[in-house]
Design a protein that fits this description.
Enzyme class: transferase
Distance between the termini: 53 Å
Largest sheet: 6 strands, antiparallel, barrel
CATH class of the largest domain: Alpha Beta
Catalytic activity: S-sulfanyl-L-cysteinyl-[protein] + uridine(34) in tRNA + AH2 + ATP = 2-thiouridine(34) in tRNA + L-cysteinyl-[protein] + A + AMP + diphosphate + H(+)
CATH architecture of the largest domain: 3-Layer(aba) Sandwich
Radius of gyration: 22 Å
Oligomer: single chain
Strand order of the largest sheet: 12-15-14-13-16-17
GO molecular function, one term: methyltransferase activity
Mean pLDDT: 90
Subcellular location: Cytoplasm
Shape: globular
Keywords: ATP-binding, Cytoplasm, Disulfide bond, Methyltransferase, Nucleotide-binding, RNA-binding, Transferase, tRNA processing, tRNA-binding
Helix content: 25-40%
CATH topology of the largest domain: Rossmann fold
Number of helices: 9
Length: about 400
């Protein structure tokens, strides 16, 4: 007989480490498993110096959140530990985020965090504690595929779907992880928090990047890399020189406001050439992308990814966490690099972001992996300077 976590033990004989961020979701997971009789251990990671965000209600993994996780653990009667992962977090997440941004990319640090300090380092700690599983409060479903393997699937509550940030989870990690909220909605989770009388039942959800105090990435980068904001040119896709800027770190693909130049028509950031320190702008239609080149691919399908690409396997992909999956196909470029061909095109696809694969578009669709966007191919052709800038991205 299997228990509710698909493990062949009674709950009392099953040790589960719960990654507790101090928010309502992970707190409910800990309370649920404790109520079911599991041997629950709560662990909270201190990932960065809280500083001015110590008491922010929409952050995580620092300051007030650590205190909240401790309070919940005491209330439900489980041991709780705080692990100082600041150095690991800086090396594995903050530093790569900074370098990627300075290279003109738009990185997704939450993917790196899950891939490294949470699902690599914390998972290793859970194994050291003789745990049978590591549970988190992510909204993603996990099911048995047979043969001891598990798969990841989009959750019941698609408004809370966090599969975009978890595509890089390896098969070994997936087999050890459990996501008890995968088949619950957020209102149901909050109702459980109220029933358990948790102090965090009404706590707002964390938003934006945890280590960015006020949503200004440039402030963090300038603090970590003083003098990184080197001035450069703002160039139109047709080759016209439009003005100067104070550093490419102040721009992202698809940006419209705050560009600093005006032509009497809406302008968008179309590409960023870090080597030339150029910001290339143009009309909205210049943002349309047809093909995406990927690097650092994590494939979770049954057949090898090369076989899937050679067969031009039809899939669905997300190129932003807030967009629904769109139809696409996997192919191989002339250089053997994995390429995603978008059937309908997408606007504002930026290098550094994630492209996540699914076998469908609705709740319950399986996550087939994904990769980091290395470059894009525009739908429309413009002047040669624009092509050079696009290829540089």
């Amino acid at each position: 007989m299997l228990n509710s976590l698909d493990l062949p033990k009674s709950p009392a004989d099953t040790r589960v480490v719960v990654a507790m961020s101090g928010g309502v979701d992970s707190s409910v997971v800990a309370a649920m498993l404790k109520e079911e009789g599991y041997d629950v251990v709560g662990i909270t990671l201190q990932l960065y110096d809280a500083g001015e965000v110590a008491t922010r209600t929409r952050s995580c993994c620092a300051g007030q959140d650590i205190y909240d996780a401790r309070r919940v653990s005491e209330a439900i009667g489980i041991p709780h530990y705080v692990l100082d992962y600041e150095d690991r977090f800086r090396e594995a997440v903050i530093d790569p985020f900074t370098e990627s941004y300075l290279a003109g990319e738009t990185p997704v640090p939450c993917v790196s965090c899950n891939q490294t300090v949470k699902f690599r380092d914390l998972l290793a700690t859970a194994r050291d504690l003789k745990a049978d599983a590591l549970a988190t409060g992510h909204y993603i479903d996990s099911r048995s595929l047979g043969g001891g393997r598990r798969g990841l699937f989009r959750p019941t509550d698609l408004d809370r779907d966090q599969s975009y940030f978890l595509y890089a989870t390896t098969q070994e990690q997936i087999d050890f992880l459990r996501f008890p909220l995968g088949r619950l909605t957020k209102p149901e989770t909050r109702a459980l928090a109220a029933r358990y009388d948790l102090a965090v039942a009404d706590k707002p959800d964390s938003q934006d990047i945890c280590f960015v105090a006020k949503g200004k990435y440039s402030d963090i980068i300038e603090k970590l890399r003083p003098g990184a904001g080197e001035a450069g040119d703002i160039v139109h896709v047709d080759g016209r020189h439009l003005g100067r800027h104070d550093g490419i770190l102040h721009f992202t693909i698809g940006q419209r406001r705050g560009i600093g130049v005006a032509l009497g028509e809406p302008l968008y950031v179309v590409a960023i050439d870090a080597q030339r320190r150029e910001v290339i702008v143009g009309p909205r239609e210049a943002l349309a992308t047809r093909r995406i080149r990927l690097r650092s691919v994590n494939w979770l399908g049954e057949e090898p990814v090369e076989a899937a690409a050679k067969a031009e396997r039809e899939i669905f992909v997300k190129v932003r966490s807030t967009r629904p999956p769109a139809p696409a196909s996997l192919t191989l470029g002339n250089d053997g690099q994995l390429v995603v061909s978008l059937l309908e095109g997408e606007d504002g696809v930026a290098p550094g972001q994630a492209c996540v694969f699914y076998d469908g578009e609705g709740a319950g669709s399986r996550v087939l992996g994904g990769g980091v966007i290395a470059g894009t191919e525009p739908l429309l052709s413009f002047a040669e300077p624009a092509k050079i800038a696009a290829s540089a991205r």
